[in-house]
Amino acid sequence: MPVRLKHSLALARMLMLFFSRRVLRKGALRAAPVRLAVAVGLVALLVMGAAVAYSFLKDVGGDTEIWRFLFEVSTVSLILWVQIAFLIVKILFMNSEEILELSFQLPVTNRERSVAFMIYEISMTGIVVALGAFSFSVAALLVLGPAAIPQLLVSIILPVVLAYLLLSAIYQILARVVGFLRLRSIENVLLILALFVLLVFYSSRMQGLVLEASQAYLNKDEKFAWATAVSWVAHQYGAPAAIGAATALAIAVFFLVIRLAPSRYIRHSRYIDVPAGRWARRLLGPYDWCLLRSSQTMVNATTTLVLFVYLLFDSKINPIWSFAILSVGGLYQFAATQPLRVLVGTTSSHWRIYGLLIRAQLILLALFALPGIAILWIVDAQALGQGSTALLGCVSGVLITTCVGIIFPSEKDNPFSVFVGMSLVGALLALAVISVGLLQLPPVAIAFSFAGILLLLVWYGVYAIKESEMRRRNVKGKVGGELRSRSHNFNRGERSSSVALPHVLDG
Amino acid sequence: MIMKPLEIEHLRYSYDGRFNVVEDVSLTVEQGAIVGLIGPNGSGKSTLIKNTFDLLRLQSGSIRLSGHEHTSPEAMKQAIYLASNDYLPEFLSAREYVALMAKLFEVNVDHAKAAELFTMFSMEGRYDHLIENYSHGMRKKTQLVSALLMRRPLTVIDETLNGIDLEALYLAEKEFRRIRDEGRSIVLCTHDFSLLERLADHIVFLDHGQMVFDDPTADLVAEHGSLATMVFEYLESDVRCP
């Protein structure tokens, strides 16, 4: 069935308006000066990153061999960035059923709807990757001048585009295989796990790829590595040939992805019917059930389990960090529990609402952490020592995602709010890390600073709940001085002039 | 050969893979006809409509809109769907919403006529306002106005009329008659039996996913006295409650 790109683009434009008129006008972003401040802050952060990169790289000068090595290492790490961004965006868009519903009355086919959403996924991944590559790219342009452009194309832009499109094609093929195997009910979990396995596989190969690149630089070899294939072709056959071939391949894969785009149907269940035993019914409340029964939690829980098992046998990172994935639920918890707050007769303090939101997530965390710690104690008791830091990290994750979910509620399941919220928090954390690095604070001071930031997040979360509730109840509204009335004469339409007849019976 | 606006053959649908909520339903909507689709909650009406617009993946049977397979872009142009909820893109103004619909349906829309319809439906001066600021009834009327402007061969109205006031209902009835006179068809899913008696040419009654009646309204009214009596008699009958 053909896809009308024009229709997909029209739908994508509608989603863009949703983004600009709703998401970018939420919470603190409602005020134009705040939006301006955020934009200025982000630009400042980027400029700062570029300046730091330039100060490190200016001494390299025009040494093409070193630059080639640097570009190849960038390509290898950017492919990882693409995979991480792709995975995050897929998780965010997985929970976007209600916003999909906005298009149900529009005459577009399911595949056109999918392509419109794909346009958004591409833009979001593009933003993440562009931010990751910005500092290095600007520094390269400043040092090498226009000569850096072909290098940027063959080492940054084209590999990123190809990696994204190939990932998309693999994703669509897997989705079709899952459909063919009649496993649609667990499609989301399977696809996220498949992406996760790919990510783990690539990250395990990354060190080898960087090592190969450095050996090639030291030995002045021309060694082929699949991750830097475009750059290799450029060195063998010239940049124009590599750019042409990679562009042609990208176009072909793009059309393949469009061709493979699946239909997006209504998801039948947002919640899984987790049976409630007597003790569970007594202990757990509606806020807890909202999180525990969410199908999104199912995806997070499965990913957590797989990551935990992987980290258990890979001693580099403490496996308890895997439970941080569970905090993703915090991004949706506030919006998902909104119906509970509008029930007549439910008046809770803002602190209590905040407490209920956090409690649900801590229960979920405990459900995984307790058996997880027990397993870790049996398998690797030494790792338990650093487990408390990881556990504190997971709790911090809960506080951060809950705050993002409150300030940027995922209204109508939209993934954009979460994306904006996470980007802002990411930028603020990056700024904090850079500041701590510059100030060279002792660990105790760093710990106190971090605790301070978390307390600030808790306070702002509660404040945002208060604001949201006040807006919902129109607390600031005032009684008007004028009576609302029709500003025009009654429109008679085609009714008869008989005033004696009620017009509804006067057909 | 004149294509039927809607042809459904042997449609079956199940949400859980065990119980069919629609069981072997076949239905044809003739050109220039208003068909009333009735049935208790959970009888399969909305599932049937969602299948028609490919919002649910077809599991069994076939659906054609004006001769086109229901998943095709051509089919999408043949029919307009007014959902039972008032879920519109509230970040758009009504003008922008209508323009978007017109673009997607590939029709030219007369915004002056649209504004006129807004006035007629007691929403004067609101055409350029954000839908966000509309009441529930106004959103429903916006849906109706967009359908009246697009004028597709088939208009499917899933309980949209339930939330609108009597004045708007009166005007809508008149417009629906006009649409029928132009040779276009309407499927009207509603619990308002008196409206159907006034308007519908044909009644399709579903219960537990099965077709109970598929007859001209006049015949059913002649046989049972009224549609309400027909439904209540059926609900209390041995056929339904063994």
Describe the protein in words.
The complex is a heterodimer of chains A (507) and B (242). Chain A is 71% helix and 0% strand. By secondary structure, chain A is an all-alpha fold. The two termini of chain A are 45 Å apart. Chain A folds into two domains: 1-267, no CATH class; 269-474, no CATH class. With 242 residues, chain B is of the alpha/beta class. Chain B has a domain at 6-89 and 153-235: P-loop containing nucleotide triphosphate hydrolases (Rossmann fold, 3-Layer(aba) Sandwich), CATH 3.40.50. In chain B, the strands form two sheets. In chain B, strands 6-7-8-3-9-10 form a six-stranded mixed β-sheet, sandwiched between helices. In chain B, strands 2-1-4-5 form a four-stranded antiparallel β-sheet. In chain B, strand 1 and strand 2 (20-29) form a beta hairpin. The longest helix of chain B has 16 residues, at 166-181.
| Helix amount of chain A | over 70%
Low-confidence runs of chain A? 498-507
CATH superfamily of the domain at 6-89 and 153-235 in chain B: P-loop containing nucleotide triphosphate hydrolases
Structural class of chain A: mainly alpha
The computed structural class of chain B is: alpha/beta
Determine the N-to-C terminus distance of chain B. Answer: 45 Å
Largest interface: pair, residues per side: A-B, 35 and 42 residues
What distance separates the N and C termini of chain A?
A: 45 Å
Portion in strands of chain B = 15-25%
Could you provide a short overview of the structure?
The complex is a heterodimer of chains A (507) and B (242). Chain A is mainly α. Chain A has helices at residues 5-21, 32-57, 64-94, 97-101, 110-144, 148-180, 187-219, 229-237, 239-260, 278-283, 286-292, 295-312, 330-336, 338-341, 350-379, 387-407, 415-439, 443-472.
